[in-house]
C-alpha cells in the first residue's frame, strides 16, 4: 500500500531521487505496469484547491498562423505566441513551411526513440543542459511541489 502524501514515513525527496535515477521517464513508468499514480505526481491539496478545474476540451487548442511571419505582422505574431505560452501552455502552428513528410519522419523518429529499451534511452537521460541530445522528465522535478 502506498503512503499518502501527508502520511508518516513517506519521503518525497527519496521518491523523486529514485524516479530520476531510474532513467525510465514517465513512459517507462507506464510501461512498467503501474496500477496507481506515484505520489510525486500528485499535487498537494493546498495547490489543488488553487488550480482551476477547467477541462482541456472546454477550450480549443490555440492555433497560430505563421504565414505572415516575415511581414509587418511579425511583432503581433510574436506577441500572440508569448500570450498563448503564458496563458495556455501549448499551441498548434499552421503555415510554418515545414513539409508534412519531414514532420511525419520526425514524429516517427521520436516514437522510435521512446520505444527503445530503457538501457538505450538511459544513455541520453540527464538533467543538466549541455551539448548534444538529452532526454529527461520533468524539467523542475527537484523544485516543483509535484512532478509534471
List keywords for this structure.
mainly alpha; globular; 148 residues; two-stranded parallel sheet; 38% helix; 6 helices
Description of the structure:
This is Putative non-heme dioxygenase domain, isopenicillin N synthase. One of its GO terms (molecular function) is dioxygenase activity. Keywords: Dioxygenase, Iron, Metal-binding, Oxidoreductase. Residues 61-139 form the Non-haem dioxygenase N-terminal domain. The chain is mainly alpha-helical and 148 residues long. It has a domain at 12-56 and 98-122. Helix content is 38%, strand content 4%. The protein starts with 11 loop residues before the first helix and ends in a 26-residue tail after the last helix. The mean pLDDT is 83.
Total DSSP helices = 6
Distance between the termini: 23 Å
- Regions with little confidence, pLDDT below 50 for 5+ residues: none
- Average pLDDT value? 83
Helical fraction equals 25-40%
Pfam families: DIOX_N
Keywords: Dioxygenase, Iron, Metal-binding, Oxidoreductase
Protein name: Putative non-heme dioxygenase domain, isopenicillin N synthase
Organism: Rosa chinensis (China rose)
Outline:
By secondary structure, the chain is mainly alpha-helical. The protein is built from six helices and two strands. It has a domain at 12-56 and 98-122.
Amino acid at each position: 500500500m502506498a503512503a499518502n502524501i501527508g502520511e508518516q514515513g513517506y519521503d518525497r525527496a527519496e521518491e523523486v531521487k529514485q524516479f530520476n535515477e531510474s532513467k525510465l521517464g514517465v513512459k517507462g513508468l507506464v510501461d512498467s505496469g503501474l496500477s496507481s499514480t506515484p505520489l510525486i505526481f500528485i499535487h498537494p491539496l493546498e495547490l489543488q484547491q488553487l488550480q482551476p478545474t477547467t477541462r482541456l476540451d472546454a477550450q480549443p487548442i490555440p492555433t497560430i498562423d505563421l504565414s505572415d511571419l516575415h511581414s509587418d505582422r511579425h511583432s503581433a505574431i510574436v506577441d500572440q505566441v508569448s500570450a498563448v505560452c503564458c496563458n495556455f501552455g501549448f499551441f498548434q502552428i499552421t503555415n510554418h513551411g515545414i513539409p508534412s513528410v519531414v514532420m511525419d519522419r520526425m514524429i516517427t523518429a521520436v516514437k522510435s526513440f521512446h520505444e527503445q529499451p530503457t538501457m538505450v534511452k538511459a544513455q541520453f537521460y540527464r538533467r543538466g543542459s549541455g551539448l548534444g541530445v538529452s532526454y529527461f522528465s520533468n524539467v523542475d522535478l527537484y523544485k516543483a511541489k509535484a512532478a509534471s
